[in-house]
Write a structure and sequence with these properties.
Elements (H helix, E strand, L loop, with lengths): L1 H9 L4 H14 L14 E3 L2 E3 L3 E3 L10 H6 L4 E7 L12 E4 L4 E4 L8 H9 L7 E6 L8 H12 L5 E5 L14 H15 L6 E5 L5 H13 L4 E4 L19 E4 L3 H15 L5 E4 L5 H9 L4 E4 L1 H6 L3 H15 L5 H4 L4
Parallel strand pairs: 3-4, 3-13, 4-7, 7-8, 8-9, 9-10, 10-12, 12-13
Antiparallel strand pairs: 1-2, 5-6, 6-11
Helix pairs in contact: 5-6, 7-8, 9-11
């Protein structure tokens, strides 16, 4: 209710400035109570215990400043980043656009973050605290060896992460998505897994929705062969469905409601290719319990959101979790695992 009253005022502000205010509010506010570890939506994925299947996607907390505050909003897990070895400013502003008529966002941020050194110090302060906090890692834009960057980030972040998310699917770093090609992906994952070592956290791979069937098949095969913990499906899209906003022609990755159908279909594609042998995390266009439940029934063991919080406010996590509990009862499922892939 309060956010609905504030939203018109917030939407008059520059989107990136408003995002900074949201982070500041979470830093200064009193942390809420994180979800109970053994509630009705608890599940095990990649050897990790999730109190509920709803997570905050990477991009909101780029520098790992407020993961525990996000858990306090009711999220079952939080993913921070993307973090790169060296600090980088990202792309020129403006680079973040609200498409209010479409309940969407276009961004071309470009992995803006304060770098690994600052993030390590910050995340080390919460070491040992409860809650699943994944760290999303990337490469610097001007790196001469991006695979080496991912290896460096793995060594630095593995001791601090519940899981590592390897982000090779952002459309805003030129050439990054080429790492999804079969040969480059194999080399990259070999480097990451070697840097992680045998006792490190599970490795998740974040992929783009803009993939051809042959790409989907190759990625699924490699992910299973390398025994990854999960695939995150998907990142923002460079495609453009019909949009109404004056910002529709802006370059960058599109997220929010217009991405929902594409992301859901891509999840189904990966579910078909993996045959349920690999956990999937559904992302893109999720804004309600019904959206989350549909993604779970399509094959997602976990789901994430980000853009929807700009439109629905910080109470969205608890609303979706309550709605998921009701939908589970309504459909006769006693656990999330029973619902996964049941459509």
């Amino acid at each position: 209710m309060i956010y609905a009253l504030l939203r018109p005022l917030l939407f008059r502000l520059d989107p990136e400035f408003a995002h900074g205010l949201a982070l500041l509010a979470l830093k200064l506010g009193r942390e809420g109570k994180p979800p109970a570890p053994n509630g009705p939506l608890a599940s095990e994925v990649a050897g990790l215990h999730f109190p509920n299947p709803l997570g905050m996607a990477a991009g909101f907390d780029k520098d790992g400043e407020v993961p525990d505050a996000l858990l306090g909003l009711g999220f079952g897990f939080a993913e921070v980043g993307s973090i790169t070895p060296l600090p980088q400013a990202g792309n020129p502003r403006p680079r973040l656009f609200r498409l209010a008529e479409d309940r969407a966002v276009i961004n071309r941020m470009g992995f803006n973050n304060g770098g690994s050194e600052a993030a390590v110090l910050r995340l080390a302060e919460r070491y040992g605290r409860p809650g699943v906090v994944g760290i999303n890692i990337g490469a610097n834009k001007d790196s001469a060896d991006r695979i080496a960057d991912y290896g460096t980030m793995t060594r630095l972040m593995a001791p601090l992460a519940s899981y590592l998310a390897v982000n090779i699917s952002s459309p805003n770093t030129p050439g990054l998505r080429a790492l999804q090609d079969e040969g480059a992906l194999t080399e990259l994952l070999d480097a990451v897994l070697a840097a992680r070592g045998p006792s490190g956290p599970p490795v998740f791979l974040k992929v783009a929705p803009d993939l051809e069937p042959a790409d989907i098949s190759a990625i699924a095969r490699i992910a299973i062969d390398k025994r990854l913990g999960a695939l995150i499906v998907s990142n923002t899209t460079i495609s453009r469905p019909p949009l109404h906003s004056r910002h529709a022609a802006e370059t960058g990755g599109l997220s929010g409601a217009p991405l929902r159908d594409l992301a859901q279909q891509r999840l189904r594609d990966f579910r078909s290719e993996t045959g349920g042998a690999l956990p999937l995390i559904g992302v893109g266009g999720i804004a309600s319990a019904e959206d989350a439940f549909a993604r779970i029934r399509a094959g997602a063991s976990l789901v994430q959101l980000y853009s929807a919080m700009a439109y629905e406010g910080p109470g969205i996590a608890r609303r979706i979790v309550r709605g998921l509990e009701a939908l589970m009862r309504q459909h006769g499922f006693s656990t999330i695992a029973e619902a996964v892939g049941s459509e």
